[in-house]
Amino acid sequence: MDKVIRILAIIGALPLAFVGLRWIVDPSGAAEGLQMIYMEGAARNSQIGDLTAFFIGMSGFALYGILKQKADFIYAATILLGGTAVWRVLAGVVHDAPTVWSFVAIEVVTSAIWVAHARTLKS
């Protein structure tokens, strides 16, 4: 069972790494894939820089933790991804932003798999 969870954890991290890479090579397509407007001017620089760092950092933490069997790195990635789900929902409730529930579901499921895998490493 531990091997299955590890494989699922990797499968959850890889698409996030590809999203990060897409922000480097095709930022307008990456924005579209996340249902975002591709911003103009200095906002574009922040959009590309921040989102690339977020996705590459998060997936990097997850993959490093999974491959090197270091639970702390997996938990760091989970804080970022799980926090994203929480803040998406709060943005909808507090700021009347449309909540993209398919994104929230992916974030919650992936976070749960990462936590399950990190717990297997601690035992």
Number of discrete helical segments: 5
Task: State the total count of DSSP E strands.
Answer: 0
What are the low-pLDDT stretches, counting only 5+ consecutive residues below 50? none
DSSP helix fraction: over 70%
Order of helices and strands: HHHHH
Strand content is: under 5%
Shape: globular
Radius of gyration: 15 Å
Structural class: mainly alpha
Sketch the major β-sheet: none
- Overall mean pLDDT stands at 97
Distance between the termini: 14 Å
Number of domains: 1
Organism: PS1 clade bacterium
Protein name: DUF4345 domain-containing protein
Keywords: Membrane, Transmembrane, Transmembrane helix
Transmembrane segments: 7-25, 45-66, 73-94, 100-118
Annotate the secondary structure layout.
Blueprint: H1 2-25, H2 27-33, H3 41-68, H4 71-95, H5 101-122
Structure description:
The protein has 123 residues and is mostly helical. It has one domain. It has 5 helices and no strands. The protein has helices at 2-25, 27-33, 41-68, 71-95, 101-122. The longest helix has 28 residues, at 41-68. The two termini are 14 Å apart.
What's the quick description here?
It comes from PS1 clade bacterium. By secondary structure, the protein is mainly alpha-helical. It is built from five helices and no strands.
Keywords:
single chain; 123 residues; mainly alpha; 5 helices; globular
